[in-house]
Amino acid sequence: MKDTWTSQLVFLQEEYYIEAAMPDWPQQYTANKAKYATVPAALRSFEKLAEIAQYLNKDYLATTLSQGLEMLANGQAAHFPMQAHRIGVIDTNYPDKIKDIGSFAQPGNDPNNAGVTVWMPTGWFINKQSAKIDACKKWIDFLLSEEAWNVFTSVQKPGGPPVIKGLKLPANAIPGILDTQQYFDSGKYKPALEFSSPIKGPNLEQLCIEVISGRMTPLDAAKAYDQDVQKQAVLLNIPGW
User: Fold this and answer.
1) Contact between residue 13 and residue 48 where contact means Cβ atoms under 8 Å apart
2) Which residues does 146 contact at the CB level (< 8 Å), separation at least 6?
3) I need a surface site. Which of 28, 115, 142, 197 has the fewest CB within 10 A?
4) How does pLDDT run across 201-212, given as a tens digit for each residue?
């Protein structure tokens, strides 16, 4: 957590399970009708942070992302709650260890409904003032085609499954990345909340660290985060706040 943003991963990856319990959570959250402190499935996002604390390396507050990946590659760590595409760093820096690294969804309460929270890929957009809109559309059609995907994956190892219907990871993809395809094939995925709602509090990283380090209870952190997001919602002039 030396790179403080990494403290959020367990919290953010819980989104799949929140929506499994409350499908309209993003809408209710955005409308100020559902809170992390009052929705049990959402509160689990903070509770899990407290539960993993006993398993962390003693110097976790001083450990960087790069050091964490190195520990994982060299067998000095068993698990790393992290976005799967970071496995590509291990492939680059420790290629002889890459076959030792796998990935699986953050566990939920139901072992028969394990799923992943997904960070969406870069988007492609056309300026509506362009004089070449039709040509741009043809280019984007090509970018989304199987032919383009095959060209891309022939020179670049993908960091995750494509979110394009009909396309999949190639068989020679990085093993730990290939592990994630099963969740896409079975529909066991949801986009991270930041892709479904414009509201994310600026102090989340710090609150997650407070919970992990035992300086704040999950419920107190949830209440504090509910207050934190309100400031941003008001700033963005979101209805209901």
Assistant:
1) no
2) 166, 167
3) 142
4) 999 999 999 999
Distance of alpha carbon 240 from alpha carbon 172, whole angstroms: 49
Residue 98's nearest CA partner among 35, 34, 169, 157 is: 157
- How is 63-97 classified by DSSP, letter by letter? --HHHHHHHHHTTS-S-----GGGHHHHHHH-GGG
Task: For the beta carbon of residue 231, count every other beta carbon within 10 angstroms.
Answer: 14
Residue with tokens 């990856």: 13
| CA dihedral for 183, 186, 191, 193, sign (positive or negative) | negative
Token pair recorded at residue 119: 């960070």
Q: What is the pLDDT of residues 69-95, one digit of tens each?
A: 999 999 999 999 999 999 999 999 999
Tokens of 205: 């990283």
Structure tokens at 209: 């660290």
- What domains, with CATH codes, occur in the chain? 4-121+173-235 (3.40.190.10)
Residue 161 has φ and ψ, to the nearest 5°, of -65, 145
